Amino acid sequence: MEKTVSQAIAYRRSTRIYKDEAIDPEKVKQCLYNASLAPTSSNLQLWEFYHITSKEVLSKIASACFNQNAAKTAQQLVVVVTRKDLWRQRANANIEFLNKVFDKPDLEPRLEKRKKQATDYYKKLIPTIYFDVFGILGLIKYWCFQIVGLFRPIYRQTRLSDMRIVAHKSAGLAAENFMVSMAAIGYDTCPMEGSDTLRVKQILGLPRGAEINMIIGCGIRDDNGIYGPRFRVPFENVYYKV
Ligand SMILES: Cc1cc2nc3c(=O)[nH]c(=O)nc-3n(C[C@H](O)[C@H](O)[C@H](O)COP(=O)(O)O)c2cc1C
């Protein structure tokens, strides 16, 4: 039986050594489907998930992860990739979806207004924020918005670096959805940023605009697979009730 969310969160630990025991790729795929249901900025879904099951590619990626145990002993690997470069394609997908959802004869004025607001969001606002030329436009927008921001609240994350953070934030949420889903079915994971991301991109044949968010080792924990008890700073140090 699947664990509850709280049980799965408690069970999940970064597992560095996996048993030499196969895991079902279909179940891993289902957990990746759960990953794709994570919330994402503007619902742009600027992510891709590469599910590595081929022994040859596993060994190449493990080597790009400096052969750390969590990669070397993993039965399968998942590479979470951000695709900020796909913003226009994803915005168009949202517009198509909205057109379908609101494709009704005699749409009520209330819904007509909602459709216009939502499509304008993807047709006007998203390009205003995402369109950039080598980061120059983003910087100009950033300073313009800072000036407007002196007088009223305004969105400020327009620089290239800001937009990268926006994409990685959402991809991180997807990664956590994945790891918790894996834990729920008794599978283990280890998120890794310790890798040569350029080499990983080359192995997967990814384009320039793609970025590696993290690589996740997958398998079943070995008896010595978890290096120690879980450590967190006291919750009181990070919890602020306002
Ligand atoms: C973004 C990210 C990158 C990480 N990179 C690595 C890594 O390269 N190698 C590794 O062994 N663990 C890595 N970890 C795992 C952390 O060390 C681990 O989450 C932390 O020690 C807390 O332990 P827990 O996950 O068992 O609760 C990473 C975790 C995150 C979230």
Tell me which ligands are bound. Answer: flavin mononucleotide
The CATH topology annotation of the largest domain reads as NADH Oxidase
Which architecture name of the largest domain does CATH use?
3-Layer(aba) Sandwich
Low-confidence stretches: none
Helical residues, percent? 40-55%
Domain module count:
2
| Head-to-tail CA distance between termini | 38 Å
Report the structural category.
alpha+beta
The major sheet is characterized as:
4 strands, antiparallel
Task: Please state how the strands of the largest beta sheet are arranged side by side.
Answer: 1-2-4-3
**Average of per-residue pLDDT values:** 96
**Strand fraction band?**
5-15%
CATH superfamily of the largest domain: NADH Oxidase
Helix tally equals 9
In the CATH scheme, the class of the largest domain would be Alpha Beta
H and E order = HHEHHEHHHHEHE
Number of strands: 4
Radius of gyration: 21 Å
| Large-scale geometry | globular
Q: Oligomeric state of the chains?
A: single chain
